[in-house]
Write a structure and sequence with these properties.
about 260 residues; mainly alpha; 2 domains
Amino acid sequence: MMITGAVMGFAIAVNSGSPTLGFVGAALAGAALSGIFAFLVLMLMSNQVATGLALTLFGLGLSSVIGKPYEQLKAPVLGKLDIPVLADLPVLGPMLFRHDAVVYLSLLIVAATFVFLRRTRAGMILRAVGENHAAAHALGYKVRRVRFAAILFGGACAGLGGAYISLVRVPQWVDGLTAGAGWIALAIVVFASWRSARILVGAYLFGGISVLQVNLQAAEVNVPVEVLSMSPYVITILVLVAISIFGQYGAPGSLGKPFHETD
C-alpha cells in the first residue's frame, strides 16, 4: 500500500503539476489496495498473512511497471509552511515550525485518531470489534463493516506515507523506493503496544535517526555506510522493544482472527 501510494502520488503529481493532487491520489490508491485486501479476508475469508504477503508482492510489481516511465524525473516542489513568529524561534523554530503542510496534517491525524478512539461512540465500537468481535456482533454491531472501514483508513494513511517519501523526502521515483519503511511502521505499532503517543514517538525516532545517518554520510564520518544505513531500523526496534518490556502488550484481542457470522 505504501509503495503503491508512492508511485501513484508521484505519477499524478508529475502529470498534474500539483503535489496536493498527488497526495490525494496516493491516499485513494492506498485505500483501493487495502479495499482489495479487506474484500479477500473479510468476505472471502482468505488467510490474512498469505493475502497480505501476496498483495505486498503485487504492489511491488505494480509500482515497478507504473514507475518505469517516471524514473529520473523530478516531482513538483511542496512548499514549506512557516508558522509566523514561532518559526523564528532559535533552535526550536526550524525544528518544529518550518515544515510542509503534510507534516502538520500527520500530527492532526494522530490526534484525531486518539480522540476518535477514546471519546466517540464510533471509536468505542471500533475498539469493541477489535477486542472481541463475537461480543460486538452479539450486541448488533456490523463487524465486517467496521473492519472494512478501518482497513480502508489504514490503507489511505499508508498511501499518504508513501507519497511523502516520493514527493518530499527524495523527491523522485526509483524502484523499491520505500525500502521496507512499511514494515518498520508495522513494527512501531506492535512494539508501541498500540498506543498513539508511543507510536508517534517511535515514528519520530526513526525519522530523526534516518536524517542523522544521511547527514553523517554526507559529512564522510569514518563509519561504514552499511552500518549507518541500518542504524535507523536497529535503534528504533531496540528502543521500542525496551518500551514494550516495561509496558503492557496492548494488542487487540481479536487481532488477526477471522470473523464468522455464527461466532
